[in-house]
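Q: Got a minute? One more chain.
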Amino acid sequence: MFKFLNEKKLHTQLSFVILKEKFLHPEMDFESILHSIHFQPKSKENIFSSVRLLNTKFIPKKPTKSGLKPNWIMGKIRKQALGNIPLNEIYELIEK
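A: Always. Here it is, folded:
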């Protein structure tokens, strides 16, 4: 599996999702699993621009608690980013 991820230039954080699907459907190959989980490769710049847009859209309904904004943005962007870029890089961008 890691060889497949390296060949496709995907981040290893996607491995948990792939393993979960492989366990449920052992006959599927890795390419089919990517298709079934609706994985789409995206560039780092594309994801970062989405993060910046979400950063401007965040308006808290209640007084801000620490961590509310990063958690909201990570929840929105996680599916796009998983496998394309390490999630900690996105979190660092949000914290700036």
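A: The chain has a mean pLDDT of 89.
Q: Perfect, thanks.
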